Amino acid sequence: MKEEKFWQEGMDGKRFALCLFRKIWMLLAAALIGGAAAGGIYLFQALVLAGPVQYQVFSQYRIYFDKDKYGEIADYYNAYTWGEIMKTDQVVDFVMEALPEGITKEQVKESVSVGQMNDIKIMPLYITTEDAALSEEIARGYVYGLGEFARSIEGLSDMQCWLVEPAVPVERATKTGNAVGLGSVCGALLLFLVLTFRYIVDDSIYLEEDFRKRCTAPLLGILTCKKNEKLKQELATNAAYLLKGAKGLCVIEVGKGKNAGWRKGTETDSDKRRGEVEAVLTACMADGSALNWAAWPFGQKDCEDMRRKDGAVLVVPWGNGNGRALTHILLQLEKQQIPVRGAILTDADDKFLKAYYRK
Prior knowledge:
Helices cover 49% and strands 20% of the residues.
């Protein structure tokens, strides 16, 4: 048995891609679940937790700077500056003069905001409250108040309102698509990381190279689910040379228990595969030689019987998380001084092998 250093080696990109491709449906399912979850959370937050519907009035103002006296003073203003100015008492006091009783300064300050300014002379102003009539009233108050404010300070000559639109409900859940997309990406990425981690710690035997990293004995060949004739012929040829004239062999099933059998299929399928293994091995053994089957754990009589024979042949199920089980059995055989003549990989995926070896 070889010293286990296979886990320290680099990742086989092609093997990883093929293993991942077999789980592509899981990635798609994770993307769907992640997208649905993220969209649902976003909609719940936007429609339920966001409170009552708000109404917004959009208005637009032309700002006139006093260039003759103060020069390029416009360079000192931007959207953030105007947004703060709109909430100051210097502006709000003028606005309150045009508003009816019952509307407070706090309501006015909370309702006003300034949008993005592409031109420093054109200011978009938004008034947002939970009442459409209140939003329109405050917007009219700013039409009066900003004109008075501009004429009361140095640097400005006037602020004229060009446009005041009626109050409209503020659109909510406008980024549902973004939330669903982000959730889908996160869901698929999270599962991809999980699958990558599982691949790293996976000790399954998928290829002859996987077996040779664990055992010095040769892999005689591979039996596939769809009975690939070329691989079956390769197995027969290798067995005929490597096991030629064997007077007795013990076949050991590598599985999760004494009656583990093969990974998939019914009992009838298992019997058929057992028959295939026996047909290959008996064809290369000496006439009258015995072929016995065994499985871990080995009894004292089992070990004595295996030592009397010409060695053991391991039957390893394909891709069944069986690397540790294989290592354990090899250790036990080594302790009992039972030689391993070779191994047969069974129930291999035809498409996987064809894609990997291109044959």
